[in-house]
Amino acid sequence: MTVLEEDDCWQLLDTSSVARLAVLVGDDLEIFPINYVVDGRAIVFRTGEGTKLAAVTIARNVAMEIDGYHRARREAWSVVVKGTAERVEDFDEIYQTEELPLRSWSDHPKQWFVRLLPQQVTGRRFAVAGY
Amino acid sequence: MTVLEEDDCWQLLDTSSVARLAVLVGDDLEIFPINYVVDGRAIVFRTGEGTKLAAVTIARNVAMEIDGYHRARREAWSVVVKGTAERVEDFDEIYQTEELPLRSWSDHPKQWFVRLLPQQVTGRRFAVAGY
Prior knowledge:
Chain A is of the alpha+beta class. Chain A is 20% helix and 50% strand.
């Protein structure tokens, strides 16, 4: 197993668009796929009025993970971003955020933007026996 | 968005092998990929002595998610299993578990088996705007 440099983690974050987000709401652990973009050194994603937004804005801490597989090298990698999430409330901020190349994974109406402020970005790469 | 029947969720679980597992250890939310198999109505995966095992066995609750994309239908789906995780301690149980077609995603030595006992299995399917 190889620990990835933080810059390599950001490069992988930049070149991916689907992640899984884990949030804690009370005692309830939620996990769901998100479509995201990197904005500077933050992560931005859109969400609707439902469970996801409630979960993310109530949650103190969130953890986001992306992973992939390099078939030729028989290597998998995984990057985890831990931090806090906040709803983007300011209209100017939203306007700027609308400019981001953020496609929604679901075509369900999604009105809110959420910004994940990373406190820790870690990654690893490891050989894979079978996939 | 379509809510999936529990049987459909199990069929998707049966035909996948890589999931992401979210666990809470104290205030720390962990999320990582796992290679799993379905064993009856439980989920079994292997893990090493490191963070994963510690996280899973200390955690009260875990949430596991799989997802996929049906390109022709432009539909994505996501299945979440919530429950408790326990280390498989009994040797007979481990022997039976060794018979499962459980390939390790990583070839790092992994000595322990963990069984996730589902308390809730939910799934949804949704149209995708772009991927």
